[in-house]
């Protein structure tokens, strides 16, 4: 006979929250759901979840309250007058927002007798509950230890630290790496496409370049830059930043000539030149981080 699993409340039934509620149900947890647009609860209620008539009822149904909404403001809007029902609850908010918004929410929760665990979930809805899924968590570690077994139904739990903003910093930094890598590939496709090159012809070169970046070889720049940033020194060797800034000028001009938007290469070109102006022309490309740390006036 299956041991009784602890109850979970899920607030927010967009694509993510609905999939989370379904995953908890499949893992054997009694699930209570609430959503601003009540009709979105129907499919999950048909699978066995209990609909809460009000946010207060949702908060009263379980100690563990998992929230997945557009932003943290949605949590404040949802809880609204039910604020008195927060006492003793564990809120696990897996919505996107800024690290500062998460820190403020943590203080708000504490002020109302609740604990807040913040999270940045690193898979889209179909990945929830699947092997390889993971979530960056931050906030009070004992809370994660207490509810980790339940939360593992959604994904692996990767604890980043007590600062409640950390989960979102990792989440956004990861999204930025993902978006910028994808955007670079799309820009390359647009440039080469202007000369009639098919995307399939570009793919092998992109795949080789991106995997080389993570390698130990001479193009293994993830490790090279990590080492340089840790040491605070960026030896340029045969690849000076000045040479690469001039090359970035050529990239902007080539993009313009190809009829492709220049905003993205210009942003890179400008950062390169700002680092050169800061005295890093003879250093390596890793020194661009110094320009990033000192935003332009
Ligand atoms: N989808 C993904 O691939 C993915 C991946 C990782 C992380 N995330 C993050 O997960 C979160 C949820 O994403 P999602 O894809 O499910 O869709 P979403 O459009 O970001 O969120 C929809 C949910 O937020 C609710 N909501 C929005 N504003 C509200 C307000 N003022 N008051 C009350 N409820 C409000 C909606 O309620 P109504 O139904 O009433 O409109 C709905 O339940 C987001 O923060 C997103 O960034 C998403």
SSE layout and pairings?
Blueprint: E1 8-11, H1 15-26, E2 31-34, H2 42-46, E3 50-51, H3 55-60, E4 64-67, H4 72-79, E5 90-93, H5 99-111, E6 115-121, E7 134-138, H6 141-151, E8 156-161, H7 166-193, H8 199-213, H9 221-231, H10 241-257, H11 263-280, H12 288-293
Parallel strand pairs: 1-2, 1-4, 2-3, 4-5, 5-6, 7-8
Antiparallel strand pairs: 6-7
Helix pairs in contact: 7-8, 10-11
- Element-by-element helix/strand order: EHEHEHEHEHEEHEHHHHHH
Shape: elongated
Based on CA atoms alone, the radius of gyration comes out at: 24 Å
Tell me the CATH topology of the largest domain. Answer: Rossmann fold
End-to-end distance: 65 Å
Number of contiguous helices? 12
CATH architecture of the largest domain: 3-Layer(aba) Sandwich
What's the gist of this structure?
The chain is an alpha/beta fold and 297 residues long.
Explain what you see.
- It is built from twelve helices and eight strands.
- It has 297 residues and is an alpha/beta fold.
- The protein has two domains: 156 residues, NAD(P)-binding Rossmann-like Domain (Rossmann fold); 123 residues, Orthogonal Bundle (N-(1-d-carboxylethyl)-l-norvaline Dehydrogenase, domain 2), CATH 1.10.1040.10.
- The protein has an eight-stranded mixed β-sheet with strand order 3-2-1-4-5-6-7-8, sandwiched between helices.
- The N and C termini lie far apart (65 Å).
- NADP nicotinamide-adenine-dinucleotide phosphate (NAP) binds next to α1 and α4.
What are the main properties of this structure?
single chain; 297 residues; alpha/beta; Rossmann fold; N-(1-d-carboxylethyl)-l-norvaline Dehydrogenase, domain 2; eight-stranded mixed sheet; 12 helices; 51% helix; 12% strand; elongated; binds NADP nicotinamide-adenine-dinucleotide phosphate
């Amino acid at each position: 006979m299956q041991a009784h699993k602890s109850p979970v409340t899920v607030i927010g039934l967009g694509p993510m929250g609905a999939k989370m509620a379904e995953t908890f149900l499949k893992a054997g947890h009694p699930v209570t759901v609430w959503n601003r647009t009540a009709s979105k609860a129907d499919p999950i209620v048909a699978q066995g979840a209990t609909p809460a008539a009000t946010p207060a009822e949702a908060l009263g149904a379980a100690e563990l309250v998992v929230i997945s909404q557009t932003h943290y403001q949605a949590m404040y809007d949802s809880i609204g007058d039910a604020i008195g029902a927060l006492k003793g609850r564990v809120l696990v908010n897996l919505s996107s927002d800024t690290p500062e918004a998460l820190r403020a929410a943590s203080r708000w929760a504490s002020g109302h007798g609740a604990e807040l665990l913040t999270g940045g979930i690193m898979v889209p809805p179909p990945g929830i509950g699947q092997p390889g899924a993971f979530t960056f968590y931050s906030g009070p570690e004992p809370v994660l230890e207490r509810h980790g077994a339940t939360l593992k139904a959604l994904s692996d739990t990767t604890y980043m630290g007590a600062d409640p903003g950390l989960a979102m910093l990792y989440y956004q930094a990861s999204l930025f790496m993902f978006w910028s890598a994808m955007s670079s590939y799309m820009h390359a496709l647009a440039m080469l496409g202007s000369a009639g090159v098919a995307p399939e012809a570009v793919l092998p070169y992109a795949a080789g370049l991106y995997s080389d970046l993570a390698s130990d070889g001479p193009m293994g720049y993830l490790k090279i830059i990590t080492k340089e940033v840790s040491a605070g020194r960026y030896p340029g060797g045969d690849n000076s930043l000045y040479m690469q800034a001039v090359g970035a000028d050529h990239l902007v001009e080539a993009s313009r000539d190809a009829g492709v938007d220049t905003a993205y290469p210009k942003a890179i070109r400008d950062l390169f030149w700002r680092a050169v102006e800061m005295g890093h022309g003879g250093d390596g490309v890793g020194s661009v981080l110094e320009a990033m740390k000192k935003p332009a006036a």
